[in-house]
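Q: I'm writing up a methods section and want to include an example of the input and output format. Could you take the sequence below and give the corresponding predicted structure tokens, formatted cleanly so I can copy it straight into the document?
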Amino acid sequence: MKALNVFLGFILLQACFSFINSQIAHGPGLDLGPIRTDLQNSETQIRNLKRYDYSFCKLYIRDNTTGFEAYTTFHPRVDEFTTLKIPMSNVSIMGNENVVIWMEIPGNKSTTSFYTYNATVDVPKSCTYENGTRLTVTECTDPAVATYNVTEYVMKQGNVTKYGNIVLPPKHVHDLGKNATVNYFTVVVQLANGAITDAVWDGDRINACKDCDQCIDGQCAAKYSDLGCDIGGGCQLKIFMAWAGLDRLKKPCISINKIPSNFAKYSSTSVSKLGLGLLSDFFYRINDNNNNPNRA
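A: Here is the clean output for your methods example:
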């Protein structure tokens, strides 16, 4: 019965995705793409970005028990502190210990792999024994020849560097044993003169767990019962996205200053208790004001 409820929850979630992304709900827009269950044949374009350009990313969701897997696309603007939201996540995601999420961001991240291989080398050997006797090998027949070469096999190390998209490692949302849920995730995207070179979960970037009551996969978590879900709107999976580095015009990114782990330095509130889910909370006020209107 529990598996059936979770499956029905995913069906409801997918229907919710479809409506939210429809032109009926929003008109033609760029912020949120359609939910997809076909994980192939998706095209992205890598380019150098400046502040307020629209970027592109994918959020993947997988239930390791039912096998359900899907993704949706977002188009957050560069160097705006953006909230990526999945409405009506509720039990299907926020309360499901089998669910993992991860993100893919088009970029030019270099990955170097090291490997070993067999190689042949010519090793010089003396034609004379220590007692002065000559070796009876063909190469030493001529008395004027002092050495000859012997081919030996040795192990050598090589490396290869590849460039490709950035895929953040999967993270669980809920831990049933701890009765804990990651009420928000934070992603930091690194720019180098407008080129996306890296992206990380904020909890992997710093030792965030030291400032949290609980942690799941290195990300700060709160008690599930503490989630301040909106009446009628339910709990929402939230991912904050911030930017670091320099944009195409060599302007330094400032949105990283708004991530929760930075505010925790000046607050007595545990970082895991910040942004518990109410639309009136501090982080939504940041996004909903006129100075920073971006929501994806």
